[in-house]
Amino acid sequence: MKLAFVVNRIETEQADYTTIRLARKAAARGHELAFFGLADFIYESSGRICAMASVPEPGDYADDAAYLDHLQNDAPEKRIVVEDYDIVMLRSDPADELTTRPWAPPSSLLFAQLAAAHGTIVLNDPSHLTDAQNKTYFQHFPEEVRPATCITRHADEVSAFLEEHDGKGVLKPLQGSGGQGVFIVDKKNRQNLNQIIESITRDGYAIVQEYLPAAAEGDLRVITLNGRPLQVDGTFASLRRSSTTEDHRSNLSAGGKADLEQPDEAAMRAAEMCAPKLIDDGMYLAGLDIVGDRMIEVNVDSPGALSYMEDLSGVDFSGAIIDDLERKVRLKKNYSGTLSNRHLAVV
């Protein structure tokens, strides 16, 4: 199998990223891999989609750090034909480009759409990822599993929403990730509300959500594959993320801690309610952030935490994902191009 990963920049990848874990497991099986950044696509005059990519050697690397070191320092750079690859996995975070390269994420999705149209399996489906570039995508899921939400740039609207919800809520930017710019507003810091709103809306819209009391215990990150919770040998790819600081952010990149925890009935029901939308949109790999029986966020660009889940559980979740990718390549060949990219993404 020929497998390519599209990331923000190769030089900013880190050893604990899900992308690196998936790539290392694929390399150990002898698959041919390539990595390239959002700015590395090439559209030839002939219509082919190419890229300047780093092409690491296949092999059984000691750990993720060793593989990353090879990728960043020793892997040769080559001009590749993207359409020659069986699968392209889109693993970039648009929020990282918000202030420096806002053009990069939407441009890369247009190239990815062309690659899919030319026969490469692109995951997640790039046509629907275009619709999911910010958190408004979240509002398309059933109201039953979403906290009450207002999206606005007007301070008086935020204040009115908070008054409707006992003066407490969560404010965050419409475009963002990793817990960046997330504030919990209550009576203790209400006097800072205007400054918080100004900080968030400097680069766009703000989201204000009702505060869920269960959030005090953190949130549950559940990885879904083909629209449903990923499960291997009876263990779900799921962990609880909780805050280790007073700012209450549970994201691992914001200093949160992770503990292996299996989803309870309420979390499984929330995941079940989300499945039809994920499947219909071709969202192959996603991360659901669940508090109690509500989903507070859905991550479809570059869902992470898989390496933490594997290290805590000893379960080879990434190996199961590689198994599934190999299966998709076989299905595509068996159906001789009659299945759409969206169908292949979640079949």
UniProtKB/TrEMBL annotation:
Enzyme Commission code(s) on record = 6.3.2.3
Q: Name one GO cellular component term.
A: cytoplasm
- The ATP-grasp domain is annotated at 135-326
Q: Tell me, what is one Gene Ontology molecular-function annotation carried by this entry? A: glutathione synthase activity
User: Which stretches does the entry tag as region Disordered?
Assistant: 240-260
Q: Which residues cross the membrane?
A: none
Pfam families (alphabetical) = GSH-S_ATP (PF02955), GSH-S_N (PF02951)
Q: Which UniProt keywords apply?
A: ATP-binding, Ligase, Nucleotide-binding
InterPro entries from the UniProt entry:
ATP-grasp (IPR011761), ATP_grasp_subdomain_1 (IPR013815), GSHS_ATP-bd (IPR004218), GSHS_N (IPR004215), PreATP-grasp_dom_sf (IPR016185)
Nucleotide-binding as a keyword of this entry, yes or no, is yes
State what protein this is by name. Answer: Glutathione synthase
Q: What is the lineage of its organism?
A: Bacteria, Pseudomonadati, Pseudomonadota, Alphaproteobacteria, Sphingomonadales
